[in-house]
Write a structure and sequence with these properties.
38% of the residues lie in helices and 14% in strands. By secondary structure, it is of the alpha/beta class. The protein has an eight-stranded mixed sheet with strand order 5-4-3-2-1-10-11-12, sandwiched between helices. The chain has a four-stranded antiparallel sheet with strand order 6-7-9-8. The protein starts with a helix and ends in an 8-residue tail after the last helix.
C-alpha cells in the first residue's frame, strides 16, 4: 500500500472520541443508553462521505460520478494487506483504539446482557434479524452465504418464544431458502416484499394472519428490464455480479479489482440514468438499485409491528440486529420511538443509530442462545 493510500484511509477514518474524552460510565445502567456529549459531531466526516452516494445520484456529470466513486471507497475500504511493515502497526493500532473508544458509546450486548434484559422487563419481545453479516458470514460468492446449523437452531428456538422476522436486502424466496424456517416472518428486498408464516402466528399476542405486502409491485417490469441491461453491461468487469432481488438489484464488487471500481460504477450509472424512478444506494461491497418509494427496513419493521398488533403498544420490546448501512433505518426507528434496542454487528467503529453492538455472527449466535436460556428461566414470552 502506498503512503497516499494510507493517507486516504486515515482521511476516511471515523473520528471517534478518545477514552479520556469520554466520561467514565455510571455503574447504573440507563435505557436507552445516552449518547456522549457532542457525539453527534464526532462522525461528521464519515456522515458526509456516506451521504455522497445519494447526493451524487441526483444528477449526472463528472463531479457527481467522482463523488459516487469516493463513496464506494469510503464505505467499502479494502484491507491493508499490502501496507508496509512500519505503516501497518500504526494503522491497526489506531483502528483498535478507535473501536475501543466507540465501544464506550455502543457497548457489547453480550457483556451487558442482564442489563439489556432488565430494560425489556414486563414487555413482549419481538425479534428482527438481518441475514448477511448477521446470521451468516460475509462471503465472496453471495449464493454461498450459508448460515450454520447451530445458528439455524438458535433462531428456531428464539422464534418458538417470540415473534421473529428476517429483514434482508435479498429477495424473500432466496433468504427463506437459506434460513429454512417456515415459522418466521420474512421481509425481503429491504422490506419491499413481506410475507408471514403460512399457518399464521403461533404466539398468543401476535395477531397477523397470512401477511403479504409488496409496496413496489408496479416496479417489477422495470426492475427486470434493468437487471438484463446491467448483466449485459457489466459482464466485461471480472468479478462483478448482478443479483436480482426481485424488488431491488444488487451489483456486487467484492471480487472486483479496486482499479476497476470506477469503470464498474460508470457502467452501472450508464444504465440507471435512464430510469429516474430508480435510485442507487450503497452497502458493503455492493451497489443497490431500488425504487424511489419511501420504503426501507425501518418502514418494514413498523409495518410488521402493526401487523402483529403491537403498534402503539407500550409493553412491546423489539430487538433489531444488523450489520449494514441499510439496517440504520430500522435502528433509527427504534431510537426515535424510544422503544426496543438496535444492535450493530461490526468490528470497526461506525456512525450508527444502534445502542449496542456485537462483533460478528459468532457473537450473534451467543446472544440468541443467551436469550433462549433467559426465556427458559421465565414463564412466558414476557420478561418477568
Amino acid at each position: 500500500m502506498t503512503k497516499q493510500n494510507v493517507a486516504m484511509q486515515e482521511e476516511l477514518a471515523i473520528a471517534v472520541p478518545t477514552a479520556a474524552a469520554i466520561a467514565e460510565p455510571s455503574p447504573c445502567f440507563s435505557y436507552p443508553p445516552p449518547r456522549a456529549a457532542g457525539s453527534g459531531t464526532n462522525y461528521t466526516r464519515y456522515t458526509k462521505l456516506s451521504c455522497r452516494l445519494d447526493l451524487a445520484s441526483c444528477g449526472g456529470g463528472g463531479r457527481a460520478a467522482n463523488s459516487w466513486i469516493e463513496s464506494m471507497k469510503a464505505l467499502s475500504p479494502t484491507q491493508a494487506k499490502s501496507a508496509a511493515p512500519r505503516e501497518a502497526p500504526s494503522l491497526a493500532s489506531r483502528e483498535e483504539e478507535d473501536y475501543d473508544s466507540w465501544m464506550m458509546l455502543h457497548p457489547s450486548a453480550l457483556d451487558n446482557f442482564e442489563e439489556v434484559m432488565t430494560a425489556a422487563k414486563g414487555k413482549q419481545i419481538v425479534m428482527f434479524l438481518d441475514y448477511d453479516g448477521t446470521l451468516s458470514p460475509i462471503v465472496d460468492d453471495p449464493d454461498r452465504a450459508f448460515m450454520s446449523d447451530e445458528m439455524r437452531e438458535a433462531v428456531r428456538e428464539v422464534a418458538s418464544h417470540f415473534p421473529t422476522a428476517i429483514v434482508s436486502g435479498r429477495c424473500t424466496e432466496k433468504v427463506s431458502s437459506f434460513v429454512k424456517l417456515s415459522e418466521l416472518y420474512y421481509a425481503g428486498s429491504h422490506g419491499m416484499d413481506i410475507k408471514g408464516p403460512n399457518n399464521g402466528p403461533k404466539h398468543p399476542k401476535a395477531m397477523a394472519q397470512n401477511v403479504l405486502f409488496q409496496p413496489a409491485s408496479e416496479f417489477l417490469p422495470m426492475i427486470h428490464e434493468v437487471y438484463k441491461s446491467l448483466v449485459e453491461t457489466t459482464k466485461s468487469i471480472p468479478g462483478s455480479r448482478v443479483e436480482n432481488n426481485k424488488f431491488c438489484l444488487s451489483v456486487h464488487f467484492r471480487c472486483v479489482d479496486e482499479k476497476k471500481w470506477c469503470l464498474l460504477a460508470e457502467k452501472v450509472r450508464s444504465v440507471i440514468t435512464d430510469y429516474p424512478k430508480l435510485r442507487e444506494t450503497h452497502g458493503r461491497k455492493v451497489l443497490e438499485i431500488r425504487p424511489t418509494i419511501k420504503w426501507d427496513k425501518g418502514k418494514a419493521l413498523e409495518f410488521l409491528l402493526e401487523s402483529l398488533g403491537f403498534d402503539g403498544c407500550h409493553d412491546v420490546f423489539p430487538f433489531y440486529i444488523g450489520d449494514d448501512r441499510t439496517d440504520e433505518d430500522a435502528f433509527k426507528v427504534l431510537r426515535d420511538r424510544g422503544q426496543g434496542l438496535g444492535i450493530l454487528v461490526t468490528k470497526i467503529a461506525k456512525e450508527t443509530n444502534a445502542s449496542f453492538s456485537l462483533r460478528e455472527p459468532a457473537e450473534v449466535l451467543k446472544f440468541l442462545r443467551r436469550l433462549e436460556e433467559w426465556k427458559q428461566s421465565s414463564t412466558d414470552g414476557v420478561a418477568q
